[in-house]
Amino acid sequence: MKLDVIKLDGGAAGDIELDADLFGLEPRADILHRVVRWQRNKAQQGTHKVKTRSEVSYSTKKIYRQKGTGGARHGSRKAPIFRKGGIYKGPTPRSHAHDLPKKFRKLGLRHALSAKAKAGELVVIENADAEGKTAALAKQVKNLGWKRALVIDGAEVNEGFLKASRNIEGLDILPSMGANVYDILKRDTLVLTKAGVEALEARLK
């Protein structure tokens, strides 16, 4: 499939042939959902913690005698049924990550790229070069109509472009190895440089 290539100033820069195996698939929501869920679970901290019966600070004295009160038998106030007692089977620090085969993760990235291409939210630019001036880049981005965009460059991101884009709201930059399903789907527009397209095709073949 062919797509027009533009420059940052909006001018035409020819066209590019995109690999149908990466950009021409019929997007499947179930595949995208599984990969995004794997990403978010892996990123979850899992540091939530409650105090158990052995950790709360309370007296361990038997609260009243065993027999003759007409009430239930109780010992420590630390028991989970009492206010300020320990929590039974509460959350403890753990990893929420689960395994997902590498082939499936690659497939998810292909479907994410294809989803953007099918929705008409894929833009290819000649290169991501800037002189490090935020105002100039912000004006170009506004003229191109990018409100929430993700720019994926080649193996390395141009230093001037990265510096100029840091303070522009809604514009994020990643090298090709940082491309992931969640970030691609989260943005309204996916912007690839020519070098980014080549790097992704090499990575996902």
Description:
- With 205 residues, this protein is α/β, with parallel strands linked by helices.
- The chain has 2 domains: 2-44 and 96-204, Ribosomal protein L4/L1 (Ribosomal Protein L4, Chain: A, 3-Layer(aba) Sandwich); 50-90, no CATH class.
- The protein is 35% helix and 14% strand.
- The chain is built from 7 helices and 6 strands.
- It has helices at 20-23, 29-43, 102-118, 134-144, 159-165, 181-186, 194-204; strands at residues 2-6, 12-17, 122-125, 149-152, 171-174, 189-193.
- Strands 2-1-3-6-4-5 form a 6-stranded mixed sheet.
- The radius of gyration is 27 Å and the shape is elongated.
Which descriptors apply to this entry?
single chain; elongated; 35% helix; 7 helices; 6-stranded mixed beta sheet; 6 strands; 2 domains; Ribosomal Protein L4, Chain: A; 205 residues
Quick overview of this protein structure:
The protein has 205 residues and is α/β, with parallel strands linked by helices.
Give the helix/strand layout.
Elements: E1 2-6, E2 12-17, H1 20-23, H2 29-43, H3 102-118, E3 122-125, H4 134-144, E4 149-152, H5 159-165, E5 171-174, H6 181-186, E6 189-193, H7 194-204
Helix pairs in contact: 2-3, 4-5
Query: How big a fraction of the residues is strand?
Result: 5-15%
Instruction: Give the name of the CATH superfamily of the largest domain.
Output: Ribosomal protein L4/L1
Report the CATH C-level class of the largest domain.
Answer: Alpha Beta
Radius of gyration: 27 Å
What is the count of distinct domains? Answer: 2
Overall shape: it is: elongated
User: Into which percent range does the helicity of residues fall?
Assistant: 25-40%
Reported by name, the CATH topology of the largest domain is Ribosomal Protein L4, Chain: A
**Spatial sequence of strands, sheet with the most strands:** 2-1-3-6-4-5
* Mean pLDDT, all residues: 92
**How many DSSP E strands?**
6
- Low-confidence parts, pLDDT < 50 over ≥5 residues? none
